[in-house]
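re: ur question from earlier - yeah i can do the single chain one, its not a big deal. heres the input i used so u can compare w yours
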Amino acid sequence: MLYFRELCRAGGGAIDACEMTRALLRGEDAVGYCCVRPSGHHAEPDRAMGFCLFDNVAVAAAMAIEDLGLKRVMVLDWDVHHGNGTAEIFRRRDDVLFFSIHQSPLYPGSGAATDLGSGPGEGYTVNLPVPPGSGEEIWLSLVEHIVVPIAESFGPELILISAGFDGHREDLLAGCNLEASSFAQMTCHVRDLARRLGVPLGAVQEGGYHLGSLVESLLATMAALGGEGKARGAAAAEALTPRAAATVAPYWPL
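and the output i got, formated as tokens:
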């Protein structure tokens, strides 16, 4: 069963993300999608930025650990912009594994591949920047060959997606070339990962500023969350995937 809720009250995104997470962890639903505005992943602990007031997915992840007793949560952010707020919130923690696939250079200018977290959280932040013009094969390669195997080693008890759709080719806030089917494919890989691990999977809405492609990508992602489609393999992206693997090799087996 797919949990879906649209919330229109200001500041309610974090609350609704928590409600979705509680439902997932009670076993009421295996997967969920929290469709909210404004997005949240740029909001840092002490300031709002980038259209974001509160970091919805970070609140949900922290609540799952601090209130519901989970030991390990994974967050995958595939918004085309770096999820700097989520990265900063969990920078020094080893109970949240954070991935961000994002275009670089691009706002907010953070998210270098060499930024792996700090202190006890070193290695638990995995930044995967891609160049402008990157399409489905590059993004899928990073999901399949970097995100999935690291996640399997980490063994999360909950998987959350920061689902931004501004990497679509029609979204002019950035310069990547994804299609709605690209987001569906990434979802299929993460959905299958959650099934193998036997853990719930939830997604929280982030960016997406071209209305037509936003709707199409959202519907494709929700369909994949609900079980439609099959994940296909992607060849390791030349240079990008091996470089990313070498960067995280001291921390994770690949």
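The radius of gyration is 16 Å. not sure if urs matches, ping me
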